[in-house]
NarG-like domain-containing protein
Amino acid sequence: MDSVFTIAMYYLAPAALMLLIGGFAYKIARVITLPMARPQIPKGRKLFFRFIDFVVGFIKAILLPLYINAVKGPISFIGSFLLFHLCTIALLLLFGPHMIAALSTTFPWLLNFLSSLKIPLPHVVTQAALTDLTLWGPLDMLLNADMLAVLGFTGLCMIIGYKIYYLATKTVKCNLGDYIALALVFLAFITGYGAAHKLMLYEEALAWHIVFTSLIILYIPFSKFSHPIYDYWVGKIVKGIKMSRKEG
């Protein structure tokens, strides 16, 4: 498994990361350079008030669709957004090994700055850990990697259940890419949990966890995963500026 780990860690993962960063840079450049994509910032008001209008518009652009989705489909909203999206993103960004893998060689100063935000595994939450100067403190007893993984995996299973239902009833069209994306995330969850708890050979589980995670990143630009990574935040910024124009 050393060969799989070497390929995943030193070739596949860096290539995936470069593609992810390049795609995000392209999206931002497109908004800045294309006249049709670049919104006009409202004029005639002081810069401070224009900025406040933008912040209000940006918040509305995020919260209003969430409210509509929560009202129209509360179960789907809980499974997809609250459980899968929020818990998975928190696990990706705040789990200690993830932070170390992403920042130790690229931005070590940022790793030191964010070290107080790290979320541990439950078996390392000891009395000493509760007295450390971390942001979460005793909340680590509940807010830990296992809890986030279980909640995120539950949300993923709910999404898979909806997709199977849609496929059986043909009420909503689902393409092959949806199932490929869900399969990759499912395998990344399983291998990551197995590596963290040594439910399988650690080196083997870690190697395949990196492989599946890298494949997800490589697949992002060509799938609906591009929505939360690329389109969502750039789109909300543009929407926020447009909404601030209406109010300004």
Q: What stands out?
A: Residues 2-21+42-237 form one domain.
